[in-house]
Amino acid sequence: MTLLRRGFVVVLFIGLVWACVEFIQRNAEPIAVDLVAITLEGVLLWKLLASVCGIGFGLAVIGMGFGSLRARMETRRYRKALRELESEVHQLRNLPLERGVEDSAEPILATTSGGSGG
Question: Measuring CA to CA, how many Å separate 2 from each of 5, 7, 8, 10?
């Protein structure tokens, strides 16, 4: 199974390299790029396309990073609230149980379900 997986990765890598070489060969002509303030002459089309894709990928990663950061902060806030609630439950479990107002000095003893009845 490991050999099959490695073979698949090698074939995928070779295919990716081949696709990149074909992309470069088919888009090798120089072009002029007119931007708002300047004009770039002799820019290879494949370099322009690769850089534009890289910039778009970078902007997408930054946008997703902010969403991930917000989710992480929200998770941290929920964990803090959960710790506080668990602490409160623990404190409530440690309080003595009382039968009533008149018998407040005698706590109720908890019995186990496996003990002998009586």
Answer: 5, 8, 10, 12
- List, in sequence order, every residue forming a beta bridge with 61; answer none if it has no partner: none
- Res 109 pLDDT > 80: no
pTM, to two decimals:
0.53
User: pLDDT tens digits, residue range 43-69?
Assistant: 888 888 889 999 999 999 999 999 999
Is there a contact between 48 and 33 (Cβ–Cβ < 8 Å)?
yes
In eight-state DSSP terms, residue 104 is T
Cβ neighbour number for residue 44 with a 10 Å cutoff: 14
Domain ranges of the chain: 25-93
| Number of neighbours of residue 99 by Cβ within 10 angstroms | 11
CA-to-CA distance for 26 and 18, rounded, in angstroms? Answer: 12
